[in-house]
Amino acid sequence: MPYEYETDGAAIYAQSFATIRAEAALDRFDPDEEQVAVRMIHAAGMVELAPHIRFSPSFVATARAALEAGAPILCDARMVSEGVTRPRLPADNEVICTLQDPRVPDLATQIGNTRSAAALELWRPRLQGALVAIGNAPTALFHLLNMLEDPDCPRPAAIIGCPVGFVGAAESKAALWEAQPVPCCVVDGRLGGSAITVAAINAIASRKE
Amino acid sequence: MPYEYETDGAAIYAQSFATIRAEAALDRFDPDEEQVAVRMIHAAGMVELAPHIRFSPSFVATARAALEAGAPILCDARMVSEGVTRPRLPADNEVICTLQDPRVPDLATQIGNTRSAAALELWRPRLQGALVAIGNAPTALFHLLNMLEDPDCPRPAAIIGCPVGFVGAAESKAALWEAQPVPCCVVDGRLGGSAITVAAINAIASRKE
């Protein structure tokens, strides 16, 4: 006797988002933020994520305008860059992860940091106006904040700051939220990760549900 | 004034795992399971994941032996296949995701299911003795269970069943746990996802922490 289950992708999405909207505390979000938050919650499988999501007032509009203008998306991990749904991107935007670049191990030694942090040094030529998505490494987010302390460093348009884990994740996101060098979205505390980050990118890229 | 933070990757791992072992309820796991569970919790950023993780008694040993014997790892999503840390693999194992295969859209129409489910039809030549890792789509896990209802279908060595979400995730994992066609690991309920799944693979692949 075969297992019976919903096999229609569109119906699965619709039912998932309806469940999230019925269960999650979304009142404090404006309509654009709400769409992004719903997709982040969907990726996490947790309506309990809602109170941890924070947006700068102009974040969604700024990030979306950047993508519509053709900005690249700079990602700290391949699990982020590989998750972005290319057909949702408004300008066939480049999705870039420099972590596997052969220069990274030497750069890491040189700057005395992780490879995840060192990889951001290779973002500099593309950083101006980009959408930055950090969904894995707290050291990458901290290093970005230090890069942006230099007024001569190019400025991204917006930052998704969602590193995950037990060492530096909460601290780096709190530092981003406090500094707000550009409009940003964070998931506070230990929660975060590549799936939640990808979901935010995919929701910013297109309002389609 | 630059931000100060831990920049040594090995120290970050050690401190993260120590925090998890201090906070998470891990007593019910044997030593091999405990290592896998710790890495899954690390990826999720949630010690609250612990009570949701279930292992068949022989799961870790069976899955590890399969990898040591050169078994491929069959993944339902590129966020899973891209996350596997290749140097941890004991036999330079192939990591396969068929979701982007050009035959998949037609196959999905033909079998009346999602692309995630249809992609598994292309696993058949590699399925015997493989380690299966489903970290995204409930429809993929349900379709696998239906494939395995056929006694002529090749048998994987072990299954990591961790799809995430609000429609079919809890149900498909409960069905896997009930049927146990081969040794398996599941995260029950809505939680799961590619990061947790990748963490399980990486922990099975090598005991190195």
Automatic annotation (TrEMBL), chains A, B:
GO terms for biological process: cobalamin biosynthetic process. Residues 12-206 form the Cobalamin biosynthesis precorrin-8X methylmutase CobH/CbiC domain. InterPro entries: Cbl_synth_CobH/CbiC, CobH/CbiC_sf. Pathway: Cofactor biosynthesis; adenosylcobalamin biosynthesis. It comes from the Bacteria. GO terms for molecular function: precorrin-8X methylmutase activity. The keyword NADP does not apply. The keyword Isomerase applies. Gene3D superfamilies: Cobalamin biosynthesis CobH/CbiC, precorrin-8X methylmutase (3.40.50.10230). Pfam families: CbiC. Belongs to the CobH/CbiC family. This is Precorrin-8X/cobalt-precorrin-8 methylmutase. It comes from Jhaorihella thermophila.
